[in-house]
Amino acid sequence: MHPMQTLLEPSSIAVIGASETEGKTGYILMKNLVDNGYKGGIYPINPNAMEIFGYRTYRTVLDVPHEIDLAFLLIPGQLVNHVLVQCGEKNVKSAVIVSAGFAEVGEHGLKAQSELEDVIRKSGIRCIGPNTIGLVNKQKNLLASFVPFQNWKDGPVAIGAQSGIFAGALATELMEMKTQRFGVCKSLSFGNMIDLDETDFLEYAWRDPASKIIAFYLERIKRPRPFFSLANKIKKEKPIIILKSGRTEYGGKAALSHTGSMPIKDNLLDIAFRQYGIVRTYTLQEFLATLKAFAYQPLPQGNKVGVITFSGASGVMASDEIHQSGLKLARFTQKTLKKIRNILPEWQPIHNPADIWVALGIERNKAVYKESVQAVLEDENTDILLCILLALPNSDVPDIREVFEPIVEKHYGKPIFVVIIGGKIKERWTDELEGLNIPIYSETSVAVKAIRSMFAYYRIKAIEAPNPS
Amino acid sequence: MHPMQTLLEPSSIAVIGASETEGKTGYILMKNLVDNGYKGGIYPINPNAMEIFGYRTYRTVLDVPHEIDLAFLLIPGQLVNHVLVQCGEKNVKSAVIVSAGFAEVGEHGLKAQSELEDVIRKSGIRCIGPNTIGLVNKQKNLLASFVPFQNWKDGPVAIGAQSGIFAGALATELMEMKTQRFGVCKSLSFGNMIDLDETDFLEYAWRDPASKIIAFYLERIKRPRPFFSLANKIKKEKPIIILKSGRTEYGGKAALSHTGSMPIKDNLLDIAFRQYGIVRTYTLQEFLATLKAFAYQPLPQGNKVGVITFSGASGVMASDEIHQSGLKLARFTQKTLKKIRNILPEWQPIHNPADIWVALGIERNKAVYKESVQAVLEDENTDILLCILLALPNSDVPDIREVFEPIVEKHYGKPIFVVIIGGKIKERWTDELEGLNIPIYSETSVAVKAIRSMFAYYRIKAIEAPNPS
Predict the structure, then answer these.
(1) Residue B464 pLDDT more than 80?
(2) HSE-up of residue A358 (Cα within 13 Å, Cβ side)
(3) What is the rounded distance in angstroms from the CA atom of residue A158 to the CA atom of residue A205?
(4) What would you report as the CA-atom Rg of chain B, rounded to the nearest whole angstrom?
(5) Cβ atoms within 10 Å of A227's Cβ, excluding its own
(6) Are strands A213-218 and A157-161 parallel, antiparallel or unpaired?
(7) N or C terminus: which one in chain A shows less Cβ crowding within 10 Å?
(8) Are B237 and B247 within 8 A, CB to CB?
(9) What is the CA radius of gyration of chain A?
(10) Whole-prediction pTM value?
C-alpha cells in the first residue's frame, strides 16, 4: 500500500480539535468534510461537546469505537506529541498535523520538531505537516482543510505545495476567479515535511488515474535522489511541472527561515530539472498559465506557432516573445495564405502573424474569426495556434462560443491559446471560451511561456534524454 | 507654436466622413466629440446629409465659413490626397488621417504613401497617420477617435502609441477594467508617422503641465537623434517610459511589415535608452504595471524594499524577484523589529520579508495590517513597501480602505505596492485600495518589475549620466 493512500483515501477521519464555533479552524474543517459529501466515518474529538455537525464527539481518539485511518490535528503545537502517542496506541494510520510552531519558527521550533520526529517514528503513523493546511481528494469528495473552500472544481491537475497558507490562497484563486478555473483533483500541502514529502506525492499522483498533470510548488527538494529518479521514470507518462522558489541568494535565505530548508544551488537544480524531465516555471503566473494550458489543451507536436492577430502591434509583440522563447513562427502554406486572402481585402499582405483586423465588420465578425482560425489550424506547417483577440465594440460577436465550438469539436489535435486585450467584452469572452477549455490569457508573454512549457514537455516525451551518469 | 498644438488643442474640427449611421466610424467620432463636451466648433463634412448630431453639415471643407484648426479624415484611402489638397486651400492647420492602405500594406501602399507625403509637404498641414485611431486631450474635453471610449479617466499619463487599433484596445482596457484604471490626460496614435512623430509628441508632452509621465508604445524610433537628445533634456523633469517591440529577429520582421519600420539593432537601442534616461519595459503587463506605479506613487529614494507577507511562500518568491531585479531587501532597524514583535507571538522570528500570518485573527485583522504596514513605512532603512496580501476569508476585513487611508494620508513619502493573491475578496480589496491610489498587482514578479522601473528613474534623476560623446 502506498504510504499516502490512507492519507488521501481514508475510510474514516478523526478531527482532533473539531469545533462548533463558526470561524474556528475545527469548525471549517468539519464543514468542508460534511458539505462536500465525504462518505467515510467522521469522528470529531472534543472533550467539551456532545455533538458537532450532527456527529457524536469523543474525548480522545482512544474513545472512538471504530478504526481510524486519518487523524486531523487542529490543536496547539505543545499538545501534538501527546495526541500522536494516543493515535499510535489507537493504531491510526496517518495524520495531518496542522499545528504550527516547529522548524518554521527557528531554534526553539527546531527542538520541538526533532522531538515530534521521534514521536512520529515510534508511532509508525504516516504524516504530513506540521504547518500544513491539509489536503483534497475530489475522487473521495474529501476536502480536508481548514481553509473554507467553495465550489472546488475537479480536474486533471494534482498539486503538491510546500507552503500551507499560500496553497490555500492559490486554491481559492483557482476556485473563485473566472480566469483561473482549471480543475484540481488532488491537492496536498506538505508543510515542514517531517515525514511524507514531495517524492511520496509524486509516486501517489503517478499511480492515481485522475492525476494527469503533476504540479509542485516547492522551496526545497527534501530527497533529491529518489525524487529525480522517480521523475525520470514518470516523465513520459505524465507531465511534472514545478514552481521552485528560493532560487536566488535572498530567496534561499527566506526559504531557510520559512521552512528550515537548506537550498541546493539553483543552477544545479536547473540542470537536474532538465535532465530528469521536469518542466520548470519561474513565477506564479507562469506556473498557473502552464497548468491551465496542460489542463485544457493537447500537447503540440512541434514548435511552429501560427499567430492570428487583430492589430499589428500584437503581432509584433507576439513575434518577439515567440523568438525569445525559442519557438518558431510557422511558415504558412500557399493553401493557408489563399484561405486567409479570401477574407481580406486584396491589398492586405498576409504573413505570420496574420493581421486580420481589416476584415472585421460587425455583421461578418463571426465568419472572419472562424475562417481565419480554421485556416491556421488546418495549416500543415503549424503546430500551435496563438490567437490574440481585441475586445472592442467593433470586434465583438454576440456569442464567441458559437465560433470556437465547432472548431474545438473538429479535434485538429493542435493546442489553441487565446490572448484577449480590451475592456468589458473580455470578461464575457473569457467566460465563454474557457467553457470550451480554451485557455485565455491577458498577456501575450504569459501565453507564450505556457506554450514554451508545453513544447518543453513534448520534447521530453519525444526525445530520449541522455542517460545521466 | 508647437506643431502638435492645433492637433491636440484645436479651436475647431472638421469631421470629413461624418455619419448619421450608428456604428460607422464617422458616427462614433461625432458621438465621442459631442458626448465628451468638446467646446470648439464642430463641422461635419458629408455631402449627403443636412445635419449630423444637430450640427450643420457641409459638402467640403471649402464650404465651411469658419477657420478650421483640425481636419479628421475618415474616408477611403484613395480620396485622401484630393481632400488634403482642399484642406490646404482652406488653410486647415492640422489633420488626423485615419484612412489605411498605405505603408502598412506593402509595396502598393508604399507608393500611395509617398504620394501622400508629397501632398502633405506641399499643403503645409501637420498630420498624424495614416492608419491612426486619433487622439485624446482630456484638458480640452477632446476625445477625437473612432473607438467608442466610455468614461475616459483623466490622469497624469501621456501616451503616444504607434499602433492604432492596439492603442484603442489598450485604452479600452485602461478605462473599463478595474485593475487598470490609472488616468490618461493625452493619448495619440501616430500611425505610419508620415509627418508628426514620437519626437514631436515627446516635446509636446514635456511642455504640457497635465502630462507628468510620458509613455510610448513604439515599434521604431523614426528620428533617433532628436528623440534621444530631447529625452536627455527632459529626463530629470518627467519620467519617459517606453514599450519598444520588434526587439528580436521575428519581431523586427513583423514590425517591418506592420508599419514599414526599419529597425535599429535592439542592443544599440537598449544602450541609448539607458544613456539618455528612458525607462524601458519589455512586455505589455510590465508597461502598464510601471505606468500605474508612476501614476499613483511617489518615487522611491533608494532601492531597499521592506516586504510584509502573510505566507512564507510569498516572502520567498518576493525575495527571489527582488534579488533578480537588482533591488535590495531592507535590513529592518531594532525599533521596527520591536514594533512587529508586538503584534506577533513571542516564538515567531522576524525577518524581512516579515511573515505576519500568525498574527491574524478576524477581530484584530485591521490592527495587524495597520501596525505592520506602518512599522515598515517608518523604518529608516526602508525605501519601498511591498505588501503581499492573501485574500482569504480569515484574513478579511470589512473595509480595508480604513486600514490604509490614514497611512496614505501620513505621507511617508515612500511608495507602496500591494500584491493580492486569492479569491473574490481580492476584487473588493483591489477596488478599495486603488481608490486610495495604491497600485494593486496580481503577481509579485510584475509588481517588482514596476518597482525596478521606478528605482531606475530615481537613479536617472539622482545621478548625472555620463555625457555621451
Answers:
(1) no
(2) 23
(3) 7
(4) 25
(5) 24
(6) parallel
(7) C
(8) no
(9) 25
(10) 0.94
